[in-house]
UniProtKB/TrEMBL annotation:
Designated gene of the protein: nodM
Active site, UniProt feature: C2 (nucleophile), K598 (for fru-6p isomerization activity)
Name under which the protein is recorded: Glutamine--fructose-6-phosphate aminotransferase [isomerizing]
EC number of the protein: 2.6.1.16
Main localization of the protein described in the UniProt heading: cytoplasm
Length: 603
Protein backbone atom coordinates (compact mmCIF):
# COMPACT_ATOMS: atom_id res chain seq x y z
CA UNK A 1 0.00 0.00 0.00
CA UNK A 2 1.86 3.04 -1.34
CA UNK A 3 5.56 2.57 -2.01
CA UNK A 4 8.09 5.08 -0.75
CA UNK A 5 11.72 5.64 -1.61
CA UNK A 6 14.21 8.39 -0.83
CA UNK A 7 17.87 8.79 -1.87
CA UNK A 8 20.64 11.23 -1.02
CA UNK A 9 22.98 10.09 -3.76
CA UNK A 10 26.25 10.91 -5.45
CA UNK A 11 24.62 10.64 -8.88
CA UNK A 12 21.42 11.75 -10.63
CA UNK A 13 18.75 10.02 -8.54
CA UNK A 14 15.55 10.21 -10.63
CA UNK A 15 16.31 7.09 -12.74
CA UNK A 16 17.34 5.15 -9.62
CA UNK A 17 14.22 6.23 -7.73
CA UNK A 18 12.11 5.25 -10.74
CA UNK A 19 13.71 1.81 -10.76
CA UNK A 20 13.09 1.42 -7.01
CA UNK A 21 9.45 2.49 -7.52
CA UNK A 22 9.17 -0.18 -10.20
CA UNK A 23 10.05 -2.77 -7.54
CA UNK A 24 7.46 -1.21 -5.22
CA UNK A 25 4.70 -0.79 -7.79
CA UNK A 26 2.81 -3.81 -6.43
CA UNK A 27 2.04 -1.61 -3.39
CA UNK A 28 -0.10 0.78 -5.42
CA UNK A 29 -0.37 1.99 -8.98
CA UNK A 30 -2.98 4.77 -9.07
CA UNK A 31 -0.34 7.45 -9.65
CA UNK A 32 3.35 8.07 -9.03
CA UNK A 33 5.73 10.95 -8.57
CA UNK A 34 9.28 12.05 -7.77
CA UNK A 35 10.64 15.24 -6.19
CA UNK A 36 14.32 16.22 -6.23
CA UNK A 37 16.54 19.02 -5.01
CA UNK A 38 18.87 20.26 -7.74
CA UNK A 39 21.13 23.28 -7.21
CA UNK A 40 19.15 23.88 -4.05
CA UNK A 41 15.83 23.99 -5.95
CA UNK A 42 12.97 21.65 -5.11
CA UNK A 43 11.07 20.38 -8.15
CA UNK A 44 8.76 17.45 -8.90
CA UNK A 45 7.09 15.38 -11.63
CA UNK A 46 3.89 13.42 -11.15
CA UNK A 47 1.68 11.28 -13.37
CA UNK A 48 -1.64 9.48 -13.03
CA UNK A 49 -1.84 5.71 -13.57
CA UNK A 50 0.93 3.18 -13.70
CA UNK A 51 4.58 4.03 -13.35
CA UNK A 52 5.16 3.85 -17.07
CA UNK A 53 3.31 7.19 -17.36
CA UNK A 54 5.71 8.84 -14.92
CA UNK A 55 8.59 7.30 -16.80
CA UNK A 56 7.29 8.82 -20.09
CA UNK A 57 6.80 12.17 -18.37
CA UNK A 58 10.42 12.12 -17.19
CA UNK A 59 11.64 11.44 -20.71
CA UNK A 60 9.98 14.66 -21.87
CA UNK A 61 10.73 16.66 -18.74
CA UNK A 62 13.78 15.22 -16.98
CA UNK A 63 14.21 15.88 -13.29
CA UNK A 64 17.82 16.58 -12.34
CA UNK A 65 19.15 16.33 -8.80
CA UNK A 66 21.19 14.10 -6.50
CA UNK A 67 18.62 14.13 -3.70
CA UNK A 68 15.12 12.85 -4.22
CA UNK A 69 12.00 11.13 -2.93
CA UNK A 70 9.51 9.03 -4.86
CA UNK A 71 6.10 7.50 -4.34
CA UNK A 72 3.72 5.08 -5.95
CA UNK A 73 0.17 5.60 -4.71
CA UNK A 74 -2.86 3.59 -3.69
CA UNK A 75 -5.48 6.28 -3.26
CA UNK A 76 -7.12 6.74 0.15
CA UNK A 77 -8.09 10.42 0.34
CA UNK A 78 -8.97 11.84 -3.04
CA UNK A 79 -9.23 10.40 -6.53
CA UNK A 80 -6.16 9.23 -8.44
CA UNK A 81 -5.44 12.57 -10.16
CA UNK A 82 -2.16 14.36 -10.74
CA UNK A 83 -3.06 16.99 -8.14
CA UNK A 84 -3.59 14.27 -5.56
CA UNK A 85 -0.40 12.41 -6.52
CA UNK A 86 2.64 12.47 -4.22
CA UNK A 87 5.10 14.04 -3.54
CA UNK A 88 3.00 16.83 -2.06
CA UNK A 89 4.58 20.20 -1.84
CA UNK A 90 3.90 23.23 0.30
CA UNK A 91 6.40 26.05 -0.26
CA UNK A 92 9.82 24.69 0.65
CA UNK A 93 8.66 21.23 1.78
CA UNK A 94 7.96 18.08 -0.25
CA UNK A 95 6.64 14.94 1.39
CA UNK A 96 5.68 11.38 0.45
CA UNK A 97 3.35 9.42 2.69
CA UNK A 98 1.98 5.92 3.21
CA UNK A 99 -0.94 5.62 5.65
CA UNK A 100 -3.83 7.77 6.80
CA UNK A 101 -3.87 10.93 8.90
CA UNK A 102 -7.02 10.60 10.95
CA UNK A 103 -7.16 14.21 12.20
CA UNK A 104 -6.50 15.71 8.80
CA UNK A 105 -9.89 17.46 8.52
CA UNK A 106 -9.26 19.30 11.79
CA UNK A 107 -5.67 20.19 10.77
CA UNK A 108 -6.85 21.28 7.35
CA UNK A 109 -9.44 23.74 8.65
CA UNK A 110 -6.95 25.11 11.17
CA UNK A 111 -4.37 25.62 8.40
CA UNK A 112 -6.90 27.09 5.97
CA UNK A 113 -7.88 29.62 8.63
CA UNK A 114 -4.18 30.58 8.80
CA UNK A 115 -4.03 30.99 4.99
CA UNK A 116 -2.30 27.69 4.32
CA UNK A 117 -4.82 26.54 1.72
CA UNK A 118 -4.64 23.08 0.17
CA UNK A 119 -4.70 22.31 -3.55
CA UNK A 120 -5.44 18.62 -3.32
CA UNK A 121 -8.03 16.47 -1.56
CA UNK A 122 -5.36 14.48 0.26
CA UNK A 123 -4.50 14.15 3.91
CA UNK A 124 -0.82 14.18 2.92
CA UNK A 125 -0.81 17.75 1.69
CA UNK A 126 -1.89 18.80 5.17
CA UNK A 127 1.38 17.35 6.51
CA UNK A 128 3.40 19.45 4.05
CA UNK A 129 1.39 22.58 4.90
CA UNK A 130 1.77 22.03 8.62
CA UNK A 131 5.52 21.64 8.22
CA UNK A 132 5.64 24.77 6.05
CA UNK A 133 3.79 26.71 8.74
CA UNK A 134 6.43 25.77 11.33
CA UNK A 135 9.26 26.73 8.93
CA UNK A 136 7.55 30.07 8.35
CA UNK A 137 7.51 30.52 12.12
CA UNK A 138 11.32 30.25 12.15
CA UNK A 139 11.81 26.56 12.91
CA UNK A 140 14.66 24.62 11.30
CA UNK A 141 13.60 21.72 9.05
CA UNK A 142 14.34 19.22 11.84
CA UNK A 143 12.32 21.23 14.38
CA UNK A 144 9.51 21.73 11.87
CA UNK A 145 9.25 17.99 11.22
CA UNK A 146 9.35 17.18 14.92
CA UNK A 147 6.52 19.61 15.62
CA UNK A 148 4.58 18.32 12.62
CA UNK A 149 4.86 14.72 13.79
CA UNK A 150 3.59 15.69 17.23
CA UNK A 151 0.35 16.92 15.65
CA UNK A 152 -0.38 13.89 13.49
CA UNK A 153 -2.87 11.20 14.49
CA UNK A 154 -3.17 7.99 12.49
CA UNK A 155 -0.72 5.82 10.62
CA UNK A 156 2.16 7.04 8.55
CA UNK A 157 5.48 6.41 6.92
CA UNK A 158 6.83 9.76 5.71
CA UNK A 159 9.86 11.17 3.96
CA UNK A 160 10.50 14.92 3.79
CA UNK A 161 12.74 16.85 1.43
CA UNK A 162 13.41 20.61 1.62
CA UNK A 163 14.09 23.42 -0.83
CA UNK A 164 17.63 24.73 -0.35
CA UNK A 165 18.71 21.54 1.48
CA UNK A 166 20.38 19.12 -0.87
CA UNK A 167 21.93 17.05 1.93
CA UNK A 168 18.92 16.46 4.16
CA UNK A 169 16.11 13.94 4.19
CA UNK A 170 13.89 13.23 7.18
CA UNK A 171 11.98 9.96 7.55
CA UNK A 172 9.31 9.05 10.11
CA UNK A 173 7.32 5.96 10.94
CA UNK A 174 4.19 5.30 12.94
CA UNK A 175 1.96 2.40 11.99
CA UNK A 176 3.38 1.93 8.49
CA UNK A 177 6.74 0.26 7.91
CA UNK A 178 9.82 2.21 6.83
CA UNK A 179 13.50 1.30 6.61
CA UNK A 180 16.66 3.35 6.21
CA UNK A 181 20.11 2.46 4.92
CA UNK A 182 23.49 4.17 4.64
CA UNK A 183 26.66 3.13 2.83
CA UNK A 184 29.03 5.79 4.15
CA UNK A 185 28.45 8.28 1.30
CA UNK A 186 24.77 7.83 0.42
CA UNK A 187 21.55 7.58 2.40
CA UNK A 188 18.40 5.67 1.50
CA UNK A 189 14.85 5.34 2.76
CA UNK A 190 12.38 2.73 1.55
CA UNK A 191 9.09 1.04 2.33
CA UNK A 192 10.76 -2.36 2.46
CA UNK A 193 13.84 -4.39 1.69
CA UNK A 194 12.74 -4.86 -1.92
CA UNK A 195 13.00 -1.12 -2.49
CA UNK A 196 16.51 -0.94 -1.10
CA UNK A 197 17.99 -4.32 -2.02
CA UNK A 198 20.11 -3.29 -5.03
CA UNK A 199 21.19 -0.07 -3.29
CA UNK A 200 22.41 -1.30 0.07
CA UNK A 201 23.21 -4.60 1.72
CA UNK A 202 22.06 -3.72 5.21
CA UNK A 203 19.10 -1.76 6.47
CA UNK A 204 17.53 -0.57 9.68
CA UNK A 205 13.80 -0.84 10.28
CA UNK A 206 12.49 2.21 12.09
CA UNK A 207 10.36 1.29 15.09
CA UNK A 208 6.97 2.70 16.09
CA UNK A 209 7.23 6.46 16.56
CA UNK A 210 10.84 6.66 15.30
CA UNK A 211 12.04 9.40 13.01
CA UNK A 212 15.44 9.73 11.37
CA UNK A 213 17.49 12.64 10.09
CA UNK A 214 19.68 11.56 7.18
CA UNK A 215 22.56 13.19 5.32
CA UNK A 216 25.31 11.80 3.10
CA UNK A 217 27.60 11.72 6.13
CA UNK A 218 25.37 9.68 8.35
CA UNK A 219 22.06 9.53 10.16
CA UNK A 220 20.52 9.88 13.57
CA UNK A 221 17.40 8.06 14.76
CA UNK A 222 15.12 9.56 17.41
CA UNK A 223 12.25 7.90 19.22
CA UNK A 224 8.81 9.44 19.63
CA UNK A 225 9.95 11.37 22.70
CA UNK A 226 12.87 12.86 20.76
CA UNK A 227 15.62 10.80 22.44
CA UNK A 228 18.43 9.55 20.23
CA UNK A 229 18.19 5.77 19.80
CA UNK A 230 20.08 2.89 18.19
CA UNK A 231 18.18 0.35 16.15
CA UNK A 232 19.58 -2.96 14.97
CA UNK A 233 20.86 -3.43 11.44
CA UNK A 234 19.50 -6.27 9.34
CA UNK A 235 21.23 -7.85 6.37
CA UNK A 236 19.05 -7.59 3.26
CA UNK A 237 18.38 -11.11 1.99
CA UNK A 238 19.91 -11.64 -1.42
CA UNK A 239 16.56 -12.85 -2.69
CA UNK A 240 14.93 -9.48 -1.92
CA UNK A 241 16.82 -7.97 -4.84
CA UNK A 242 15.68 -10.61 -7.28
CA UNK A 243 12.36 -9.18 -8.26
CA UNK A 244 12.00 -10.63 -11.72
CA UNK A 245 9.41 -12.73 -13.50
CA UNK A 246 11.78 -15.65 -14.08
CA UNK A 247 10.74 -16.02 -17.71
CA UNK A 248 7.01 -15.94 -16.93
CA UNK A 249 4.64 -13.37 -18.35
CA UNK A 250 3.49 -12.28 -14.90
CA UNK A 251 4.71 -12.48 -11.33
CA UNK A 252 1.51 -14.35 -10.51
CA UNK A 253 2.39 -17.12 -13.00
CA UNK A 254 5.91 -17.32 -11.62
CA UNK A 255 4.62 -17.50 -8.07
CA UNK A 256 2.08 -20.22 -8.92
CA UNK A 257 4.90 -22.27 -10.45
CA UNK A 258 7.21 -21.73 -7.48
CA UNK A 259 4.84 -23.58 -5.18
CA UNK A 260 6.44 -27.04 -5.27
CA UNK A 261 9.80 -25.53 -4.29
CA UNK A 262 8.55 -23.20 -1.57
CA UNK A 263 6.24 -25.79 0.01
CA UNK A 264 9.18 -28.16 0.07
CA UNK A 265 11.41 -25.53 1.71
CA UNK A 266 8.72 -24.84 4.27
CA UNK A 267 8.30 -28.54 5.13
CA UNK A 268 12.08 -29.00 5.46
CA UNK A 269 12.28 -26.00 7.79
CA UNK A 270 9.70 -27.34 10.22
CA UNK A 271 10.18 -31.12 10.00
CA UNK A 272 12.84 -32.97 11.87
CA UNK A 273 12.27 -36.54 10.71
CA UNK A 274 8.65 -37.25 11.62
CA UNK A 275 8.52 -34.51 14.24
CA UNK A 276 7.27 -30.96 13.81
CA UNK A 277 9.79 -28.51 15.32
CA UNK A 278 8.79 -24.88 15.46
CA UNK A 279 12.35 -23.64 16.21
CA UNK A 280 11.21 -20.03 16.56
CA UNK A 281 9.76 -20.70 20.00
CA UNK A 282 7.65 -23.44 21.44
CA UNK A 283 3.91 -23.53 21.76
CA UNK A 284 2.53 -26.26 23.96
CA UNK A 285 -0.97 -27.03 22.79
CA UNK A 286 -1.75 -29.22 25.80
CA UNK A 287 -2.57 -26.10 27.81
CA UNK A 288 -4.70 -24.55 25.08
CA UNK A 289 -8.49 -24.87 25.39
CA UNK A 290 -9.47 -22.75 22.38
CA UNK A 291 -7.87 -21.35 19.26
CA UNK A 292 -8.96 -18.12 17.61
CA UNK A 293 -7.64 -17.43 14.15
CA UNK A 294 -7.67 -13.96 12.66
CA UNK A 295 -6.67 -12.71 9.21
CA UNK A 296 -7.96 -10.91 6.12
CA UNK A 297 -8.83 -12.08 2.61
CA UNK A 298 -6.92 -15.07 1.30
CA UNK A 299 -5.07 -15.48 4.60
CA UNK A 300 -8.45 -15.79 6.35
CA UNK A 301 -9.43 -18.61 3.99
CA UNK A 302 -6.22 -20.40 4.99
CA UNK A 303 -7.47 -20.09 8.59
CA UNK A 304 -10.88 -21.50 7.64
CA UNK A 305 -9.21 -24.56 6.07
CA UNK A 306 -7.03 -24.98 9.17
CA UNK A 307 -10.10 -24.92 11.43
CA UNK A 308 -11.09 -28.28 9.90
CA UNK A 309 -7.58 -29.62 10.55
CA UNK A 310 -7.21 -28.41 14.14
CA UNK A 311 -10.66 -29.60 15.12
CA UNK A 312 -10.31 -32.98 13.44
CA UNK A 313 -6.72 -33.77 14.43
CA UNK A 314 -6.31 -31.98 17.76
CA UNK A 315 -9.95 -31.88 18.93
CA UNK A 316 -9.60 -28.26 19.97
CA UNK A 317 -12.38 -25.75 19.22
CA UNK A 318 -11.41 -23.10 16.69
CA UNK A 319 -13.04 -19.79 15.81
CA UNK A 320 -12.07 -17.89 12.69
CA UNK A 321 -12.75 -14.22 12.18
CA UNK A 322 -11.78 -11.55 9.68
CA UNK A 323 -9.58 -9.05 11.46
CA UNK A 324 -11.78 -6.02 10.76
CA UNK A 325 -14.67 -7.70 12.63
CA UNK A 326 -12.69 -9.44 15.37
CA UNK A 327 -11.22 -6.29 16.84
CA UNK A 328 -14.52 -4.47 17.19
CA UNK A 329 -16.38 -7.55 18.40
CA UNK A 330 -14.21 -7.48 21.54
CA UNK A 331 -14.29 -11.27 21.99
CA UNK A 332 -13.40 -12.65 25.41
CA UNK A 333 -9.93 -14.25 25.51
CA UNK A 334 -8.00 -16.03 28.24
CA UNK A 335 -4.47 -17.21 28.90
CA UNK A 336 -5.58 -20.65 27.67
CA UNK A 337 -6.59 -19.16 24.33
CA UNK A 338 -4.10 -19.36 21.50
CA UNK A 339 -4.68 -16.47 19.11
CA UNK A 340 -3.19 -17.13 15.65
CA UNK A 341 -2.73 -14.22 13.24
CA UNK A 342 -1.97 -15.08 9.62
CA UNK A 343 -0.61 -12.48 7.22
CA UNK A 344 1.64 -12.64 4.18
CA UNK A 345 2.89 -9.07 4.54
CA UNK A 346 2.76 -8.99 8.32
CA UNK A 347 1.64 -5.36 8.01
CA UNK A 348 -2.10 -5.60 7.29
CA UNK A 349 -3.55 -2.83 9.45
CA UNK A 350 -6.68 -4.69 10.58
CA UNK A 351 -4.75 -7.87 11.43
CA UNK A 352 -2.18 -5.85 13.36
CA UNK A 353 -4.89 -4.00 15.26
CA UNK A 354 -6.61 -7.30 16.08
CA UNK A 355 -3.29 -8.67 17.34
CA UNK A 356 -2.87 -5.64 19.56
CA UNK A 357 -6.35 -6.22 20.96
CA UNK A 358 -5.42 -9.84 21.83
CA UNK A 359 -1.97 -8.97 23.16
CA UNK A 360 -1.71 -9.54 26.91
CA UNK A 361 -5.03 -11.42 26.97
CA UNK A 362 -4.08 -14.55 25.00
CA UNK A 363 -0.95 -16.28 23.71
CA UNK A 364 -0.06 -14.69 20.37
CA UNK A 365 1.24 -16.76 17.49
CA UNK A 366 1.68 -15.29 14.04
CA UNK A 367 2.28 -16.92 10.68
CA UNK A 368 3.92 -14.45 8.31
CA UNK A 369 5.95 -14.26 5.13
CA UNK A 370 7.87 -11.12 6.12
CA UNK A 371 9.65 -12.03 9.34
CA UNK A 372 10.76 -8.45 10.07
CA UNK A 373 7.15 -7.23 9.88
CA UNK A 374 5.19 -5.52 12.66
CA UNK A 375 2.94 -8.55 13.16
CA UNK A 376 5.98 -10.84 13.54
CA UNK A 377 7.67 -8.45 15.94
CA UNK A 378 4.63 -8.03 18.17
CA UNK A 379 3.90 -11.77 18.51
CA UNK A 380 5.00 -14.15 21.26
CA UNK A 381 5.99 -16.61 18.55
CA UNK A 382 6.25 -15.79 14.83
CA UNK A 383 6.47 -18.63 12.33
CA UNK A 384 7.76 -17.75 8.86
CA UNK A 385 6.11 -19.38 5.86
CA UNK A 386 9.28 -19.04 3.77
CA UNK A 387 7.40 -18.42 0.52
CA UNK A 388 9.93 -15.82 -0.68
CA UNK A 389 8.93 -12.39 -1.93
CA UNK A 390 5.38 -12.38 -3.31
CA UNK A 391 4.82 -9.57 -5.82
CA UNK A 392 1.59 -10.56 -7.58
CA UNK A 393 -1.19 -8.68 -5.82
CA UNK A 394 -3.29 -11.86 -5.74
CA UNK A 395 -1.75 -14.12 -3.14
CA UNK A 396 -0.84 -17.62 -4.40
CA UNK A 397 2.30 -19.22 -3.03
CA UNK A 398 1.83 -17.47 0.31
CA UNK A 399 -1.58 -19.17 0.62
CA UNK A 400 -0.24 -22.70 0.08
CA UNK A 401 2.72 -22.03 2.39
CA UNK A 402 0.33 -20.68 5.05
CA UNK A 403 -1.64 -23.92 4.67
CA UNK A 404 1.56 -25.95 4.97
CA UNK A 405 2.59 -24.28 8.24
CA UNK A 406 -0.97 -24.60 9.57
CA UNK A 407 -1.05 -28.31 8.64
CA UNK A 408 2.17 -28.89 10.57
CA UNK A 409 0.83 -26.90 13.51
CA UNK A 410 -2.32 -29.02 13.55
CA UNK A 411 -0.13 -32.14 13.73
CA UNK A 412 1.87 -30.63 16.56
CA UNK A 413 -1.35 -29.72 18.34
CA UNK A 414 -2.62 -33.29 17.95
CA UNK A 415 0.65 -34.70 19.29
CA UNK A 416 0.74 -32.28 22.26
CA UNK A 417 -2.87 -32.98 23.18
CA UNK A 418 -2.61 -36.75 22.80
CA UNK A 419 -5.30 -36.89 20.11
CA UNK A 420 -2.90 -38.03 17.39
CA UNK A 421 -0.95 -41.28 17.76
CA UNK A 422 2.71 -41.33 16.79
CA UNK A 423 1.83 -43.74 13.99
CA UNK A 424 -0.90 -41.51 12.54
CA UNK A 425 1.34 -38.46 12.94
CA UNK A 426 4.05 -40.23 10.97
CA UNK A 427 1.58 -41.13 8.20
CA UNK A 428 0.44 -37.50 7.96
CA UNK A 429 4.03 -36.26 7.77
CA UNK A 430 4.75 -38.77 5.01
CA UNK A 431 1.67 -37.56 3.13
CA UNK A 432 2.66 -33.91 3.53
CA UNK A 433 6.17 -34.64 2.27
CA UNK A 434 4.55 -35.81 -0.97
CA UNK A 435 2.73 -32.51 -1.48
CA UNK A 436 5.50 -30.70 -3.45
CA UNK A 437 5.56 -33.53 -6.01
CA UNK A 438 1.75 -33.61 -6.17
CA UNK A 439 1.62 -29.82 -6.63
CA UNK A 440 4.10 -30.23 -9.51
CA UNK A 441 1.74 -32.77 -11.07
CA UNK A 442 -1.21 -30.44 -10.52
CA UNK A 443 0.65 -27.72 -12.45
CA UNK A 444 0.63 -30.07 -15.42
CA UNK A 445 -3.14 -29.59 -15.87
CA UNK A 446 -2.47 -25.98 -16.94
CA UNK A 447 -3.34 -26.51 -20.64
CA UNK A 448 -6.69 -28.00 -19.70
CA UNK A 449 -7.34 -25.10 -17.31
CA UNK A 450 -6.36 -22.56 -19.95
CA UNK A 451 -8.91 -24.06 -22.31
CA UNK A 452 -11.68 -23.87 -19.67
CA UNK A 453 -10.62 -20.33 -18.75
CA UNK A 454 -11.32 -19.16 -22.31
CA UNK A 455 -14.99 -20.13 -21.82
CA UNK A 456 -15.05 -18.78 -18.29
CA UNK A 457 -13.93 -15.39 -19.56
CA UNK A 458 -17.32 -15.04 -21.29
CA UNK A 459 -19.27 -15.53 -18.06
CA UNK A 460 -20.80 -12.76 -15.99
CA UNK A 461 -21.13 -14.83 -12.81
CA UNK A 462 -19.32 -17.95 -11.64
CA UNK A 463 -20.05 -20.16 -8.63
CA UNK A 464 -17.48 -22.23 -6.75
CA UNK A 465 -18.62 -25.19 -4.65
CA UNK A 466 -16.77 -27.27 -2.07
CA UNK A 467 -17.55 -29.42 0.93
CA UNK A 468 -15.63 -29.76 4.20
CA UNK A 469 -12.20 -28.16 4.02
CA UNK A 470 -12.80 -27.61 0.30
CA UNK A 471 -15.54 -25.10 1.17
CA UNK A 472 -13.05 -22.38 2.21
CA UNK A 473 -11.13 -23.25 -0.94
CA UNK A 474 -14.28 -22.51 -2.94
CA UNK A 475 -14.32 -19.08 -1.24
CA UNK A 476 -10.66 -18.60 -2.13
CA UNK A 477 -11.21 -19.71 -5.75
CA UNK A 478 -14.04 -17.16 -6.07
CA UNK A 479 -11.94 -14.39 -4.52
CA UNK A 480 -9.02 -15.11 -6.85
CA UNK A 481 -11.26 -15.08 -9.91
CA UNK A 482 -13.12 -11.88 -9.05
CA UNK A 483 -10.08 -9.87 -7.99
CA UNK A 484 -8.07 -10.40 -11.16
CA UNK A 485 -10.67 -11.07 -13.89
CA UNK A 486 -13.44 -8.80 -12.51
CA UNK A 487 -15.99 -11.57 -13.05
CA UNK A 488 -18.48 -11.79 -10.24
CA UNK A 489 -17.84 -15.05 -8.38
CA UNK A 490 -19.16 -16.59 -5.15
CA UNK A 491 -18.03 -19.59 -3.17
CA UNK A 492 -20.59 -21.81 -1.43
CA UNK A 493 -20.60 -24.93 0.67
CA UNK A 494 -21.97 -27.54 -1.76
CA UNK A 495 -24.80 -28.44 0.61
CA UNK A 496 -25.94 -24.83 0.90
CA UNK A 497 -26.73 -24.31 -2.76
CA UNK A 498 -30.31 -25.46 -2.58
CA UNK A 499 -31.01 -23.11 0.32
CA UNK A 500 -31.04 -20.12 -2.01
CA UNK A 501 -28.11 -19.69 -4.40
CA UNK A 502 -29.45 -22.37 -6.78
CA UNK A 503 -31.88 -19.70 -7.99
CA UNK A 504 -28.90 -18.14 -9.79
CA UNK A 505 -28.19 -21.27 -11.82
CA UNK A 506 -28.85 -21.31 -15.55
CA UNK A 507 -26.87 -22.12 -18.71
CA UNK A 508 -24.87 -18.92 -18.42
CA UNK A 509 -23.41 -19.60 -14.97
CA UNK A 510 -20.37 -21.91 -14.85
CA UNK A 511 -20.09 -23.81 -11.58
CA UNK A 512 -16.64 -24.90 -10.48
CA UNK A 513 -16.83 -27.93 -8.19
CA UNK A 514 -13.73 -28.65 -6.11
CA UNK A 515 -14.24 -32.24 -4.99
CA UNK A 516 -11.47 -34.71 -4.30
CA UNK A 517 -12.72 -38.29 -4.01
CA UNK A 518 -13.14 -38.42 -0.28
CA UNK A 519 -15.97 -39.74 1.86
CA UNK A 520 -18.05 -36.69 0.88
CA UNK A 521 -17.59 -37.09 -2.87
CA UNK A 522 -20.92 -38.92 -3.39
CA UNK A 523 -22.82 -36.10 -1.69
CA UNK A 524 -21.09 -33.49 -3.82
CA UNK A 525 -21.93 -35.46 -6.97
CA UNK A 526 -25.61 -35.35 -5.92
CA UNK A 527 -25.35 -31.56 -5.51
CA UNK A 528 -23.78 -31.39 -8.97
CA UNK A 529 -26.67 -33.37 -10.45
CA UNK A 530 -29.12 -30.89 -8.92
CA UNK A 531 -27.27 -28.07 -10.63
CA UNK A 532 -26.93 -29.84 -13.98
CA UNK A 533 -30.65 -30.66 -13.96
CA UNK A 534 -31.19 -26.89 -14.06
CA UNK A 535 -28.89 -26.33 -17.02
CA UNK A 536 -25.82 -25.43 -14.92
CA UNK A 537 -22.46 -25.94 -16.65
CA UNK A 538 -20.30 -27.81 -14.16
CA UNK A 539 -16.51 -27.85 -14.21
CA UNK A 540 -15.55 -30.74 -11.96
CA UNK A 541 -12.05 -30.66 -10.51
CA UNK A 542 -11.41 -34.04 -8.95
CA UNK A 543 -9.25 -37.14 -9.11
CA UNK A 544 -9.64 -40.69 -10.34
CA UNK A 545 -10.18 -42.32 -13.72
CA UNK A 546 -13.28 -41.94 -15.84
CA UNK A 547 -14.20 -38.61 -14.29
CA UNK A 548 -15.82 -37.18 -17.41
CA UNK A 549 -17.99 -40.21 -18.20
CA UNK A 550 -18.93 -40.84 -14.61
CA UNK A 551 -19.90 -37.30 -13.72
CA UNK A 552 -21.39 -36.06 -17.02
CA UNK A 553 -19.92 -32.68 -16.11
CA UNK A 554 -19.52 -30.01 -18.80
CA UNK A 555 -15.75 -30.02 -18.28
CA UNK A 556 -13.49 -32.03 -15.98
CA UNK A 557 -9.99 -31.46 -14.67
CA UNK A 558 -8.23 -34.56 -13.48
CA UNK A 559 -6.05 -34.00 -10.46
CA UNK A 560 -3.46 -36.28 -8.89
CA UNK A 561 -4.81 -38.22 -5.94
CA UNK A 562 -3.89 -36.77 -2.56
CA UNK A 563 -4.83 -37.70 1.00
CA UNK A 564 -8.26 -36.07 1.39
CA UNK A 565 -7.30 -34.10 4.46
CA UNK A 566 -4.46 -32.23 2.73
CA UNK A 567 -6.23 -31.83 -0.61
CA UNK A 568 -6.89 -28.07 -0.08
CA UNK A 569 -3.14 -27.43 -0.53
CA UNK A 570 -3.25 -29.23 -3.87
CA UNK A 571 -6.58 -27.90 -5.15
CA UNK A 572 -5.50 -24.31 -4.55
CA UNK A 573 -3.35 -24.72 -7.66
CA UNK A 574 -6.09 -25.26 -10.30
CA UNK A 575 -8.17 -22.54 -8.63
CA UNK A 576 -5.26 -20.09 -8.97
CA UNK A 577 -4.53 -21.12 -12.56
CA UNK A 578 -8.20 -20.80 -13.48
CA UNK A 579 -8.26 -17.22 -12.20
CA UNK A 580 -4.96 -16.40 -13.87
CA UNK A 581 -5.87 -17.75 -17.31
CA UNK A 582 -9.33 -16.19 -17.18
CA UNK A 583 -7.67 -12.82 -16.50
CA UNK A 584 -5.30 -13.39 -19.43
CA UNK A 585 -8.23 -14.35 -21.70
CA UNK A 586 -10.08 -11.20 -20.62
CA UNK A 587 -6.99 -9.03 -21.02
CA UNK A 588 -6.99 -7.72 -17.45
CA UNK A 589 -3.75 -7.12 -15.54
CA UNK A 590 -3.26 -10.24 -13.42
CA UNK A 591 -0.39 -8.76 -11.40
CA UNK A 592 -1.90 -5.35 -10.76
CA UNK A 593 -5.69 -5.64 -10.75
CA UNK A 594 -7.63 -2.40 -10.60
CA UNK A 595 -8.36 -0.74 -7.24
CA UNK A 596 -6.14 -3.16 -5.33
CA UNK A 597 -2.68 -3.06 -3.82
CA UNK A 598 -0.54 -5.52 -1.93
CA UNK A 599 -0.11 -5.05 1.82
CA UNK A 600 -3.14 -3.16 3.06
CA UNK A 601 -1.69 -0.87 5.72
CA UNK A 602 -4.83 1.21 6.22
CA UNK A 603 -7.99 0.08 8.01
C1 LIG B 1 -6.08 -11.84 -2.21
C2 LIG B 1 -5.13 -11.26 -1.29
C3 LIG B 1 -5.66 -10.55 -0.10
C4 LIG B 1 -4.72 -10.74 1.11
C5 LIG B 1 -5.22 -9.87 2.27
C6 LIG B 1 -4.37 -10.08 3.51
O1 LIG B 1 -5.45 -12.53 -3.25
O2 LIG B 1 -3.93 -11.33 -1.50
O3 LIG B 1 -6.95 -10.93 0.21
O4 LIG B 1 -4.71 -12.08 1.46
O5 LIG B 1 -5.17 -8.53 1.91
O6 LIG B 1 -3.03 -9.72 3.29
P1 LIG B 1 -1.90 -10.22 4.24
O7 LIG B 1 -1.80 -11.70 4.08
O8 LIG B 1 -0.66 -9.51 3.77
O9 LIG B 1 -2.28 -9.85 5.63
Amino acid sequence: MCGIVGILGTYEVSPVILEALRRLEYRGYDSAGIATVSDGQLDRRRAVGKLVNLSDHLVHQPLPGRSGIGHTRWATHGKPTETNAHPHRAGPVAVVHNGIIENFAELRSELTARNYGAESETDTETIALLCQSFLDGGATPVEAVQRTLARLEGAFALVFLFDGQSDLMIAARKGSPLAIAHNGTEAFVGSDAIALAPLADRLIYLEEGDWAVLSREGFTIFDEAGAEVDRPETRIAEAAGRVDKGGHRHFMAKEIHEQPAVIDACLSHYLDGDTVRLREGEIDFSGVDRIVMVACGTASYACHVAKYWFEQIARVPVEVDVASEFRYREPPLSDRTLAIFVSQSGETADTLAALRYASGKAQILSIVNVDTSSIARESDVALPILAGVEIGVASTKAFTCQLTVLALLALKAGADRGTLTAEDGKAHVEALRKMPALVSQALAVEDRIEDIARSLAEARDVLFLGRGAMYPLALEGALKLKEISYIHAEGYASGELKHGPIALVDESVPIIVLAPRDHLFGKTVSNMQEVMARGGRVVLISDGDGLAAESAAWRTVEMPRAPAIWAPILYAVPAQMLAYHTAIAKGTDADQPRNLAKSVTVE
